[in-house]
């Protein structure tokens, strides 16, 4: 039996990166590693990095340097850097950071157990991106027991001008319907009630597989799994067939929530972004979705400051935000990334202008959020209870169907009891800019509840940052 080693895993970036970390955790646990919650206690530290935009790269570098200090002062013997930053800058990083023992690219993370076990391992293992895990791959869900991310494909075949992801993650590689359903069943058997489907491009699912299965066909199989909510993230708005809208509208398990990044509303900008569709198409699609799926909660992402964005383009974007009244909205400030098409575009927008535009859109959205939340006062909602609030042990916190984990607002419960992972009916009593206050009006019979020991709920793995902007919070 190999000697047990303590392991600390730091994940930066998006939920797709979190799934990669969970596969590394599962792989290393089979090798006898045990997870610790404090980096200072770990013999092996893994930093799973993000390199999507400038601030994410900087945070990744800062985190690596912070962990490297523990090689001098703590018990850390081995420091491993994985993910997008390794994939993109492996050569440079290995020269500049001698304190890092191994750099693994985006397709090498599943090999981490073999690499750490080998006597003579190369310092860099950065193959072309071509790997994707399957239902048989060891994986530890790092989220609370009742929720999990389910990655249905890896990589991307789009060529958006601002995006480095296809370079870092490779072309699209979809998993088969049977394999995804098998993993969903495994997660449901472990207590998961909410499946959050993620991919670089959810709506392109299956076009690279034999027989070309479609997303709506996958969803029809997934709803047979014993979970309560199935949530759709990153639905690229290029291909969105009526059959997909019908499944969202008619299947009770599909959350009436759609995360669809539209990026801009100016046709000129959409063209230079290489998004493949114009603003008229986007508006018609959004209109059709809202008409056919009552009470649909829409989340989107926008970019301000792409080279060539004029004040006229920006005015179009602001009008679009006011007109569409998205329930959830994240805005990226354009980041100039080498090896993307936008990097070579003329007419760069000054950083101060980009920040002003970001603030203006956020101010508009904050008003919209407040108005929409106020309309929920007095309404009854089903809420997934997550447990005591970090702010006060006298408050419970949870999420309704229109609130995704980690990025959206929450429901604070100040009247009533419930267990973590329980679905209760609440009445909304107060509305704030992003969060709601509510009281429990109905809950399942506690005697019917399946009791699990406290240690059966794994402590969440540290997740430092999201590469997708969450809803803005007051400064």
Describe it.
Its EC number is 2.8.4.4. Residues 443-457 have a biased composition (Basic and acidic residues). The chain is α/β, with parallel strands linked by helices and 475 residues long. Helix content is 31%, strand content 22%. Strands 1, 2, 3, 4, 5, 6 and 20 form a seven-stranded parallel β-sheet that branches. β10 (194-198), α7 (215-222) and β11 (229-232) form a beta-alpha-beta unit. The termini are far apart.
Strand and helix layout:
Blueprint: E1 5-12, H1 15-29, E2 33-35, E3 44-49, H2 54-73, E4 78-83, H3 84-96, E5 102-104, H4 112-117, E6 124-125, E7 147-151, E8 153-154, H5 165-169, E9 173-174, H6 177-189, E10 194-198, H7 215-222, E11 229-232, H8 242-250, E12 254-259, H9 267-272, H10 279-292, E13 297-304, H11 311-324, E14 328-333, H12 351-374, E15 380-388, E16 396-400, E17 411-415, E18 423-431, E19 436-442, E20 463-465
Helix pairs in contact: 6-7, 7-8, 11-12
EC number: 2.8.4.4
Main location: cytoplasm
Binding site for [4Fe-4S] cluster 2: 156, 160, 163
Poorly predicted residue ranges? 453-475
CATH class of the largest domain: Alpha Beta
By DSSP, the count of extended strands is: 20
Number of domains: 3
Radius of gyration: 22 Å
Number of helices: 12
CATH T-level topology of the largest domain = pyruvate-formate lyase- activating enzyme
Largest sheet: 7 strands, parallel
CATH architecture of the largest domain: Alpha-Beta Horseshoe
Cofactor: [4Fe-4S] cluster
Domain Radical SAM core: 142-371
Domain TRAM: 374-442
Function: Catalyzes the methylthiolation of an aspartic acid residue of ribosomal protein uS12.
